[in-house]
Inverse folding.
């Protein structure tokens, strides 16, 4: 009986943390996406990391969480995140090649 009460009491805090992390991840995705659109290679790496976080999180939501009314949304976000991660990785690989071809600049002396 005591365990059931503690599980119910812990549930709102878990949901609050999950929501806070999801909002942080979405904000990170938006900011890094804008930076990548501006041409920043570092922002592209952060963008790829945020997308891989979404792939991980929504694999858990789609496969491990009991089926609920949001299952189709979980699968849709998982598919879009996976596709975007593959596309972003390919694009970053191409920009890595372009960065390697640029002449190096010396900072001092």
């Amino acid at each position: 009986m005591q365990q059931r009460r503690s599980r119910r009491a812990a549930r709102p805090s878990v949901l609050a943390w999950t929501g806070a992390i999801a909002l942080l991840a979405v904000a990170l995705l938006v900011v890094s996406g804008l930076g990548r659109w501006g041409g920043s290679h570092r922002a592209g790496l952060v963008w790829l990391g945020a997308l891989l976080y979404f792939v991980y999180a929504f694999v858990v939501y789609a496969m491990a969480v009991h089926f609920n009314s949001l299952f189709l949304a979980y699968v849709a976000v998982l598919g879009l995140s996976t596709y975007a991660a593959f596309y972003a990785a390919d694009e970053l690989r191409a920009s890595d090649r372009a960065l390697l071809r640029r002449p190096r600049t010396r900072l001092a002396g």
Observations:
- The helical segments are 2-37, 41-63, 71-101.
- The first helix runs from residue 2 to 37.
- The mean pLDDT is 80.
- The chain has three helices and no strands.
